[in-house]
Amino acid sequence: MQEDGKDFDIDITNLYERVGGTAFFVELVDRFYTYVENEPLIRHLYPEDLGPGKKHLAYFLAQYWGGPPQYSDERGHPRLRNRHMRFSIGKRERDAWVTHMTNAAKSMSITPEDAKSLNEYFENTANLLMNQDTIN
Ligand code: HEM
Fold first, then answer.
1. Is domain 21-129 classified as CATH 1.10.490.10?
2. Which among 57, 59, 77, 100 could disulfide-bond with 71, CB atoms 3.0 to 4.6 Å apart, if both were Cys?
3. Atom of ligand 1 nearest to the CA of 60
């Protein structure tokens, strides 16, 4: 066993590369937005033109998972909690968002391990973005 714990030739490429790069995140977000378009719980939070937000989310995720800093080049520091403060996000909205993103991820051709990593990240981040105490 080497000091870094890599005692044999494991796959050290990151998730971004494994799933197929930025094209994967663009497709994932496309599928997610198809659900959002038909989801009354959160559709009203989004602007009429879904195009720019779609692109920002896809580039953000690609950057987060190890891709190029295209999101920050265009939008600056993510400040996600700050950027979501103007939307009322309680448990219902959070659950709807996570459910649709999880389903979008499930529909893509990736390993169960990578799907699990993505879903854990989505859940944790969505929890941080809640800004309403709703009991429902
Ligand atoms: C918890 C439920 C969530 C709701 C209801 C929500 C809602 C929204 C809305 C309405 C926008 C604006 C879209 C636009 O202007 O076209 C937005 C932007 C964005 N959201 Fe969320 N979101 C949620 C969770 C998340 C999570 C978990 C992430 C990251 C993993 C995320 C990442 C982003 C990013 C990167 C943007 C674009 C920010 C920018 O303007 O540069 N959101 N979100």
1. yes
2. 59
3. 35
